[in-house]
Amino acid sequence: MNASLLRTGGEIAEIYMKHVDTVYRVALTLMKNIPEAEDATQAVFIKFMTAEKSFDSDEHIKAWLIVTTRNVCLDLLRSWWRTRRVDIESVTEQEDRTEFPDNEVWQAISNLDEKHKLPLYLHYYEGYKTEEIAGMLGINHATIRTRLRAAKKKLRLILEKEEDDYANK
Fold it and tell me: Does the pTM of the predicted model rise above 0.70?
């Protein structure tokens, strides 16, 4: 009997309710687009339901979901469809709608590149240690620390610039 058959609907629902916000926020951080983040979140949980994998603990499940979310998002970002489509905003002029929460820190984080924003999110929003992030992403923990320092510097510069722009208005 495969491992996916050992999970009941109740267990899957419980895991979904416990981790859906984390999966969605990681997807939104990477995709920068609400509908695509929702699609990625759905794809991750479909993979979870069909995975023939046993998990040691709730933390193991959470880590697997985060890594799977990252991989699904990267696949979507590299997909043939995404690289050859034209956004409707570029075809017709429409009002610019912000798809991130109306929070300048979140906006600044969303403008960082993936190698900086994902470790930053996992460390400060999800509370993972650098060694845990390194294990999830398959990167040396010293590299994670370096990326966190660089991300904080970039965020500081972005936020200070926005503050100066606001003060000069």
Answer: no
